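Comment thread on ticket #2218

A.B. wrote:
> Attaching the input chain for the structure job we discussed in standup.
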Amino acid sequence: MGSPSSYFPSIEAKYGKPVDHWLKLLKGMKGMRHMDMVAALKTGHGMGHGHANALVAHFKAENKDV
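C.D. wrote:
> Ran it. Output below, let me know if you need it in another format.
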């Protein structure tokens, strides 16, 4: 697997929103566990597991205090 950000172009193309949209959404989930955030993206936004996991992994890496 490449870095989580390597998925960003395909995430933007598939879901029609910029990565910043998804990162802001994840910021609102502060305090949730990694897999709970992944599940929220999958169930609430129809995102595939790989894309959701990549976004959460990137978000958690950039926001160590979350």
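A.B. wrote:
> Thanks. Noting for the ticket: The longest helix spans residues 49-62.
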